[in-house]
UniProtKB/TrEMBL annotation, chain A:
The lineage of its organism: Eukaryota, Viridiplantae, Streptophyta, Embryophyta, Tracheophyta. It comes from the Eukaryota. This is Uncharacterized protein.
TrEMBL record, chain B:
It comes from Pistacia integerrima. This is Uncharacterized protein.
Length: 235, 246
């Protein structure tokens, strides 16, 4: 990164010691669609709103939740195009790890490498920070894990977290509902209820996406049929 | 040192504004509208069609050289709405990329792969200060082997979606409103209906009846798969059918 004419960083300190470009990036995340993640005792669930700009958009052409490896999935809030770039870079890093060590990359390491990329874009010349926060859900030898990565490149492990427009209501709701011994199914129900809290309009399998990973260590996105079943159970 | 910390530079290069917006990207969208052209794309059951205005500002111009409809390969078409020079640059790169894909992998580049490539390139321009975003919205069309006719729209922000129908340019919003009503019940248009929906949408939104030389129409049919620009006679047939129908 860092292109010849712009060999100076665009993200610089303000007199009060803040990196304002990162703060603005966080504002961009905060105006994005709500997404959340919950770590259960035997798996992790991530979910997001999928509001499309028009009914003319073919919703099957859009998938906001992506898998980085067979056992790690990711969802975002913020700018979709920036997310695609990060997914591509992370997949490549996971594959390079696998080629070198002949084993799947541990979740913490993939998160750290992705976060490093995001940090580099806050310091390198001629680039702006990424306008996304990521929720990475994975299941490896250390069990189920959920990490949130911010545009600054800082990351933390969470039991449950939310991002985007409705973040404060969603987090309050999750704090009340979360228990350490939740099962994956309960977590999915809680995720749906949390999304429903701040949802504008009628929630359906066409305007949300849910991804889960259980003890089988296989991350997958639920089909609209499966989401319909969960929605019926929640009613 | 106030470079890049919101001291007015957020409007000149693609860095964040205090509200978390990218002004340069928003201005790129305005540049698309400044071309005063509207384009419409409609996807039917076994055909996909795009219609765009053909404005020739000067009688001395060679009309055949004025076009916004570009074949990328035999099987992929692209209509570029916005700044003509940016459009030509994009088309040239897309053609190169599609040809390399065919050479490298041994099969034709699918529509969604091309759309994603264009969108990813656009994203780079929104993140790196050294290049401005392109002032072009590209609508890519093709027949996918598994999914059938496909229509994708890629914008300066780096977004891309598949569409059942869409529009770009000056009267984008009015056209989308018109198309939403038409496509509400997921109709499965035949080839003729697809073309005529697209043309009549443009006519209704611009509130004028066209001559065949004032619009360009590009089509892709499932049974044929080759991207074709309709001739003036073929366009005339559709225009006549529409006026007789109304």
């Amino acid at each position: 990164m860092g292109d010849s004419q712009y060999s100076f960083s665009l993200t610089t300190f303000s007199p009060s010691g803040k990196l304002v470009q990162i703060e603005h990036a966080l504002t961009a995340v905060g105006s994005g669609q709500t997404s959340l993640g919950i770590k259960a005792a035997n798996g992790v669930v991530i979910a997001t709103e999928k509001k499309l700009p028009s009914i003319l958009v073919d919703e099957t052409s859009v998938q906001k939740i992506q898998s980085l490896t067979p056992n790690i999935g990711v969802v975002y809030s913020g700018m979709g195009p920036d997310f695609r770039v990060l997914v591509r870079k992370s997949r490549k890093q996971a594959e390079q790890y696998h080629r070198l060590y002949k084993e799947p990359i541990p979740v913490t390491q993939l998160v750290r490498e992705t976060a490093t990329v995001m940090q580099e874009f806050t310091q390198s010349g001629g680039v702006r920070p990424f306008g996304v926060s990521l929720l990475v859900a994975g299941f490896d030898d250390k069990g189920p894990q959920l990490y949130q990565v911010d545009p600054s490149g800082s990351y933390f492990s969470w039991k449950a977290s939310a991002m985007g427009k409705n973040v404060s209501n969603a987090k309050t709701f999750l704090e009340k509902r979360y228990t350490d011994d939740m099962e994956l199914d309960d977590a999915v129900h809680t995720a749906i209820l949390t999304l429903k809290e701040g949802f504008e309009g009628q929630i359906s399998s066409k305007n949300i996406e849910i991804g889960i990973i259980g003890a089988d260590k296989k991350f997958r996105v639920l089909t609209p049929g499966e989401i319909d079943d969960y929605l019926a159970e929640v009613e | 040192m106030s470079r890049g910390s919101g001291a007015g530079y957020d409007r000149h290069i693609t860095i964040f504004s205090p509200e978390g917006r990218l002004f340069q990207v928003e201005y790129a969208f305005k540049a698309v509208k400044s071309a005063s052209i509207t384009s419409i794309g409609v996807r039917g059951k076994d055909a996909v069609c795009v219609v765009t205005q053909k404005k020739v500002p000067d009688k001395l111009l060679d009309q055949t050289s004025v076009t916004h409809l570009f074949p990328i390969t035999q099987y992929l078409g692209l209509v570029a709405t916005g700044l003509t020079a940016d459009a030509r640059s994009l088309v040239q790169q897309a053609r190169n990329e599609a040809a390399e894909f065919r050479f490298r992998y041994g099969y034709e580049m699918p529509v969604d792969v091309l759309a994603r490539w264009i969108a990813d390139k656009s994203q780079v321009y929104t993140q790196h200060a050294y290049m401005r975003p392109l002032g072009v919205i590209a609508m890519v069309l093709g027949i996918d082997e598994e999914k059938g006719p496909q229509l994708y729209k890629c914008d300066p922000a780096g977004h891309f979606y598949g569409h059942k129908a869409t529009s770009a340019g000056l009267k984008e919003q009015e056209a989308i409103n018109f198309l939403e009503k038409k496509m509400k019940n997921d109709p499965a248009f035949s080839y003729d209906e697809t073309v005529r929906t697209a043309i009549s949408a443009l006519q209704s939104v611009l509130q004028e009846d066209f001559k065949a030389t004032e619009i360009e129409v590009g089509v892709l049919r499932s049974d044929d798969r080759v991207f074709q620009a309709l001739s003036t006679e073929e366009i005339d047939e559709h225009l006549t059918a529409i006026s007789e129908r109304d």
